[in-house]
Amino acid sequence: MLNASVLVDTSLCTGCRGCQVACKDWNELPAESTSFEGTYENPRGLTSITWTRVVFNERPPDGPGAARLYLAKHQCMHCGDAVCVNMCPVGAAHRTPSGSVDIDQERCIGCGICETYCPFQAPKVDPVLGKSRKCRMCVDRLGAGLQPACVQTCPSEALVFGERDQLVAEARRRAERLRQEGFPSARVYGETQMGGLRAIYVLMGAPSLYGLPEKPTVKVSAYVVAELLRPFKALVAGS
After folding, report:
1. First and final CA of the chain: distance in angstroms?
2. What are the CA-CA distances from residue 110 to residues 8, 105, 221, 233 (Å)?
3. Is 234 exposed, middle or buried (0-12, 13-18, 19+ CB in 10 A)?
4. From CA 4, how far away is CA 161, in angstroms rounded?
5. Which helix (H) or strand (E) covers residue 4, if one does?
6. Cα within 13 Å of Cα(18), Cβ side
7. Is the omega angle on the peptide bond into residue 43 within 30 degrees of 0, that is, cis?
8. Residue 50 DSSP code
9. Which pick of 52, 119, 134, 235 has the fewest CB atoms within 10 Å?
10. What is the DSSP string of 110-133?
11. Count of beta carbons in the 10 Å neighbourhood of residue 139
């Protein structure tokens, strides 16, 4: 499937963390050693051994009523214009046939450029392996005709796997339905950001409520580094 993508409908997410557990199980990732410390978060962010994370963000009500809990699944967004792919000096970060972004563990040198410049802070260099690691959109499962593990396990059907254009259209329909149901700030996120994300969100409010950048951008210094790396990349490509 070209442009394989995942729709994340935050209005249906129950915060069960089934996607988080499924990701750990399928990719054989160890548990994080961390404390809740009075918060919902465990762990505090994406790491080299946590590639999928459900974010809990409780906000007080604007008026009478209970506080609202904003839930969202965080992972690599598999950007259409992926800074990791554009800047990786050895070509380890690359686009797969399905359109997702993967990091070749054999080629990765653990330089951390992808970690430094990703606007979503998804890739992380593992301190033991010395390799950058992140969500692969279950490229091995896709190759076998299966859905990503997170989508397969979601009990509330908040996650939908499919072709990007179809999922964008579905996200628009769902956002419009939410607006008609009394959520005027409902919107689609990921349609245009960073060249179009392969993780398309239906949000009930502003992206910041879900821990997402309003306007994800690449740091200006990235362009300087990219120019400095150009001769090295050409050398690697020709070897």
Report:
1. 31
2. 30, 9, 19, 15
3. exposed
4. 7
5. strand 4-9
6. 15
7. yes
8. B
9. 235
10. ---HHHHH-TT---EE-TTT--EE
11. 16
Strand, coil or helix: 203: strand
| Spatial CA neighbour of 48 closest among 72, 76, 21 | 76
CB atoms within 10 A of CB 111: 17
- Kindly report, residue by residue over 85-120, the tens digit of the pLDDT: 999 999 999 999 999 999 999 999 999 999 999 999
Token code pair at residue 83: 């800074």
Q: Residue 207 corresponds to which amino acid?
A: P
Tens-place pLDDT, residues 155-166: 999 999 999 999
Q: Which residue has the tokens 């050895």?
A: 90
Which H or E run includes 139?
A: helix 139-143
- What's the pTM value of the predicted model, to 2 decimals? 0.89
Structure tokens at 149: 């593990």
Strand locations in 50-89, DSSP E? Answer: 53-59, 68-74
- Per-range mean pLDDT, top range of 10-19, 58-67, 213-222: 10-19
Q: How far apart are CA 161 and CA 239, in angstroms?
A: 37
Q: Round to whole Å and give the CA distance between 54 and 24.
A: 13
Please say whether the dihedral angle defined by the alpha carbons of residues 86, 76, 49 and 27, taken in this order, is positive or negative: negative
